[in-house]
Structures are given as structure tokens and as C-alpha cells.
Amino acid sequence: MRDPLAPPEVPRRLLMGSGPSNPEFRVLQALATSPLPADVPGFEQVLTDVTALCRSIFQASAESAALTVPGASRSGLEAAIASLVRPGDRVLVGVYGHFGELLCTLAARHGGTVERIDADWGQPVDPDTMVRRIRENPPRLAAIVHADTSTGVLQPLEDIGAACRATNTLLLVDVVLSLGGCEVNVADWNVNVAVAGLQKCLGGPPGLALLTASPSAQDAFTGGESAYLDLRRLAHTRDELSIPMVFAAHEAMRMVMNEGLAPRWQRHQRASDALRAGIEAIGLERFGNPRYHVPMITLVEVPDGMDEAGVRQQLLEQHGIEIMAAFGPLRGRVWRIGTMGTNACLPSVLALLGGLESVLHSRGFRWQPRGAAVDAAIAAWG
Ligand SMILES: Cc1ncc(COP(=O)(O)O)c(C=O)c1O
Question: Which stretches in the chain have pLDDT values below 70?
Fold first, then answer.
């Protein structure tokens, strides 16, 4: 039996799955801040900075509220839905993957009447169809994921946002994957509430949701059915704030803005271009419509006869690299490889490709020449 007084065994891992990604070292240092009381001198300024940084990263208007919700990103999504949906309200959800299903579940749990527009996995929702449905019969809330981690697809939002604005429909968007890794512009796209987490492209740990709410969304907040996830209450209370998490968020967002939004998006694009060049150089295929591929996760089709889980396990055990399986209809058919935050860089891409080449070769997959993936990635990085 294990001795409970022995130190825990925490393996070193390169987290290149669907998130969390490895946090930035400086963010982990900030996480070690003592849980001081919220009225400690200087903390109010940190909260003010967090609000300003949030508005900048989401590209939200100066009138928007920027809130933190303790818990996983889902707590932010649930708080948004609990605060916007009243029993019987119609909620139109665009679904093109697992996290669109989550929006449907949350809306239904909070009494909404859910109407769905589905797209095949690998494609975004057709914006024209969603626009038509919104214009014909405006719902209380339209909800959609910006970049669905289960399919690696990016959803165009501009036309959907414009239709919502024209019909006074509230628009909720999950930007958990996309924020910090590609353009998110909630002001220009007329997004009323956007929700993210720290653990993907922002370089932080899981445990805090970030959320922006436009003035009309704030006016529309109801008390909701949830005592805890009530955004009207969370906007004013300091009681549940985890001070170490707020410091971690502050540091992560400072690092994002010091790098600059556009350079950061370019870094994510460059890392995925390098990864994809390597994948293609050894004859692997990518899943989904390439026109809509997100830059922070790459779905790779498992070659015929290859043991999907066995490859992941070997990559983990021999190389200390984690990639992820897929959900639903893609389970067993694709690997999901993330290049998010601190791992959107050439060394992480090369470690992954080197490991993958070695594992695939040991399992009989062949291509010429050996090392082609690593070489192609270096050439693509430039
Ligand atoms: C697009 C998207 N939305 C929501 C979530 C849920 O995030 P969390 O696990 O922090 O609740 C995830 C997590 O992978 C995600 O990728």
C-alpha cells in the first residue's frame, strides 16, 4: 500500500492535448500568492487591472462588464445562461461539436426551450441558416461556440452577431478555446456575453472563468434560478474570489497584452502551420474542412489499423507528451493535438513530432525519409 506521507508522484508532461496546456512559469508563481482578504491594500487595483485587461483581450467596449467566475470555464457558461434564460425562453443554439451540446444542456437545465441548428462535425454551422432563423423568429438568446475543441473548427460570427443586433436578440459565445490564440472581437461582432477560461491559449491554470457582458446583457440579467452562479450578485461580491487565482489571471493577461494580441495570434498560427507541415510530410491526414481550421488544435486522422489509444499511451510513457482522444462520432478516429499558449512554439512542436514519428515507426507505419516531419516543421516555421 502507498505510504500517505510519501511525496506525491507528479510526472513531467508536455500538455499538447485539447487543454489544459502547460501554464506559464510566471503565472504559476503568481498562483503562489497568499489568499489575503479582498480588502488588502492594492488588491482593488489588481481587480481594476483585471477588468481592463479582460476588456482588451476580448476586445470589448469600455462600457462592458468584465467578470471572473470561480470554477471551470463551464461555471462561466452556466452563470451566463442562468442569468439570461428565464423558464420558457427560446434559446437558439448552433451545434457543430461537443461544446455546442453543452450549451444546449445548460440552456435546457435552466428552463430554456432549446432550438438547435446542427452542422456535421468538421464543418461550422451555416451562418445564413442561423441568421435566417434569428430574423424570422428572434429568440431570447442565441448561443454558439467560437472554436469547438472537439472538432477543431472555427465558427464565423460576424453575420450572426449582426442579425442578433438587428433583432435585439442576446448573443452568447463560448470563446474558451479561441481567446488569446486567434482574433476575438466581441465589440465588432456584437457578442453580448463571451466566456473563456485561463487554461488554453491564455497560459494559465484551470479554475477561473472570464466573462464580458455588454450593457444590454447586463440590463437583461435576471436573478436566475442559481443562488451561486448569479452574475448580478457576482458582479458586486468579493466573497468568493480566490485571490491566488485572480493574481494568476492578472499575470496571464499581463503576459498576453505585453506580447500583443496580433503577435500572439500569429505565433499560434505559425506553430500550427509548422505542426501541420510535419503531419502532412509523413502522410497523415487532417480532419475537417481546412477552410475553417482553428490555429490552436489540430485533428489528425488515425491511419487504418493503427491503435489510436496505444499510440497516445506510448507517446505519454516514452516521451512524456500528452495528446487527446476525440469525442462522439470521432472517438477512435482522430487524435487531437493542441498548440496553445506556452506550447505554441517550435520546440514543443518538434518534441511532439519527433515523439510521434518514433511511436508510429515502432508500430509499422512507414514514410520516407525518417525525420521528415521534424524537417518539414522547421522549414515551415522559417
Ligand atoms: C470550447 C470549449 N468550451 C468549454 C469548455 C469547458 O471548459 P472547462 O473544462 O474549463 O469547463 C472547453 C474545454 O475543453 C472547451 O474546449
Answer: none
Distance CA 152, CA 61 (A): 28
Shared domain for 238 and 268, answered yes or no, is: no
Same structural domain, 240 and 124: yes
**Ligand 1 center from residue 74 Cα (angstroms):** 6
Residue 156 contacts residue 185 (beta carbons within 8 Å): no
Q: What is the pLDDT of residues 17-51, one digit of tens each?
A: 999 999 999 999 999 998 888 888 888 999 999 99
Q: Which residue's CA is the closest to the ligand 1 atom numbered 16?
A: 149
Half-sphere exposure of 171 (CA within 13 A, CB side): 28
Q: What is the pLDDT of residues 276-290, one digit of tens each?
A: 999 999 999 999 999
Tell me the backbone φ, ψ of residue 240, rounded to 5 degrees: -95, 5
Shared-domain flag, residues 131 and 33: yes
Return the residue whose CA atom lies nearest to atom 12 of ligand 1.
176
CA distances from 269 to 59, 143, 182, 183, 194 (A): 19, 26, 8, 11, 22
Grid cell at residue 129: 441558416
Q: Supply the DSSP string of 25-43, one letter for each residue.
A: HHHHHHHTS----TTSTTH
Ligand 1 pocket (Cβ < 6 Å) reads 18-19, 72-74, 99, 145, 148-149, 174, 176-177, 197, 206
Q: Which of 153, 187, 131, 185 is nearest to 296 (CA)?
A: 153
